[in-house]
Amino acid sequence: MTEKSSYQFVWRWHFYAGIFFAPFLLVLAVTGSLYLFKAEFEQAVYKDLYEVVPQSSPMPASHLVSAVKAQYPQAAVARIRPGETPERSTEIGIMDGSKSLTVFVNPYTMKVMGSLNDEDRLMNKLEKIHGELMAGTIGDRLVELAACWAVILLVTGIYLWKPRTKKRVWGVLLPRFSQGKKVFYRDLHAVPAFWLSSGMFFLIITGLPWSGFWGTQVQHLATNAGIGYPPSIWVGDAPVSTVKTKEIANVGWAAENLPVPASVSSEYIQLSIDDALMIAKKRGIAPGYDLYVPQTKTGVFTVSSFPSKAENEVTMHIDQYTGAVLADYRFKDYQPAGKAIALGITLHKGSQFGLANKLIGLAVCMGIILVIISGLILWKKRKHGPVRPNGRAAKKIIVLFVVLGLLFPLAGASMLVALAVDQLVKARKGVKEE
Predict the structure, then answer these.
(1) How far is CA 394 from the centre of its chain?
(2) What is the pTM of this model?
(3) Are 372 and 22 in contact (CB under 8 A)?
(4) Contact status, residue 216 vs residue 237, Cβ threshold 8 Å
(5) How many CB atoms neighbour CB 174 within 10 A?
């Protein structure tokens, strides 16, 4: 393969990958930029459900549950979330038939302020679009493919952007404004992509742990290698349950595969919710956590604090009869991979460093949208591909393609398909590599 053909090979892959995955990446960027402000949005939209006027002292949580049960007598209580501040209502999650509802209760007056169907909450829908395009497993795989190919687009894009001379600034570090629309749109595509490449890469890599295929494999690898969560977190004997924590509660990434211990005996009387909350308080867990209520005779109370800052994450399992803390798993207990991914997730969501984190994430998302739109405009104005050669660098890119294909198996499989199609098209057209 000559220098010219190797450059064209890289350009061709960048071009077709961009055209195919641009719609998916555009959806991810738009939904991601909106989801960064989930807390602010819900505070404004659900203000009437969230805010209460503090009084002398809140009522016991068991009384609030009774108030909810009075209105939903057939419902099963699944979780309770004490308000983070005195001005915040208490959330009680219930299963009412097939519906998952969150009921908001004034902790001072026991008044049921209203309820929300969890599936109807706008931010929950937005999260499903962002994570799986609201298409289940197929959508999840498409999102993962788009994310993996975004890495390939970044790598090939940087190669195509790389200037031939080190002294060149315009068209490399700054866009050219006086050389026609095509050159301007080319620079509007390449220059912002270069400046934002690190941020784009970070968002992609920190989002992949949520993916159904790659994320699951990484999670299993981290768990089996002992770099996700340590095997020595249990108080007393190891758990006998085969249930994983993610099956009963929404917890941090590093705790999702944590086996759930079993409560010792159903001969005892179940602890009250008040007692379970008191155990969490004595363990120093600040309000803002969820207490998941056991749904079986061998189940446990699970305290999950999945806050804005990774270092405050807590997963705790409590025997529902004796009140014994069977596991108390916190950020400090995470192994290196668990800590890195937990921190990456909160940075990805824009919560780790407050407003500054959100604004940086928003800037990167807006940059991605700009790069995609300018790339699509270039596609419409395109007459032929570039011919600038740089064979030595292109060979390194091809090696990197192989490495990326091995790191991201779904992308690797799609590369083989794309390569086969590319060769077939060239064969039918009688195109030969130079």
Answers:
(1) 33
(2) 0.87
(3) yes
(4) no
(5) 10
Residues 6+ apart with CB under 8 A from 317: 245, 260, 261, 300, 301, 302, 303, 325, 326, 327
Q: Domains, the chain, ranges and CATH?
A: 3-36+127-210+354-429 (no CATH), 55-107 (no CATH), 229-334 (3.10.450)
Of 322, 204, 216, the C-alpha closest to 262 is: 322
**What pLDDT is stored for residue 176 in this prediction?**
84
**Strand 99-105 to strand 290-292: parallel, antiparallel, or no bridges (unpaired)?**
unpaired
- Single-letter amino acid, residue 101: L
Element at 76 (helix H, strand E): strand 76-81
Report whether pLDDT(389) > 50. Answer: no
The 10 Å Cβ neighbour count of residue 84 is 12
Query: What pLDDT is attached to residue 28?
Result: 96
Residue ranges in 162-300 assigned as alpha helix (H): 181-207, 214-224, 273-282
DSSP 152: H
Among 363, 316, 61, which Cα is nearest to 198's?
363
Burial class for 269, CB neighbours closer than 10 Å (0-12, 13-18, 19+): exposed
**Amino acid at site 17:** A
* 90-96 and 112-117 beta bridge pairing: unpaired
Per-residue pLDDT tens over the stretch 293-346: 999 999 999 999 988 899 999 999 999 999 999 999 999 988 888 899 999 999
Q: What does the pLDDT look like over 355-364, one tens digit per residue? A: 999 999 999 9
167-191 pLDDT tens trace:
677 767 888 877 777 788 888 888 9
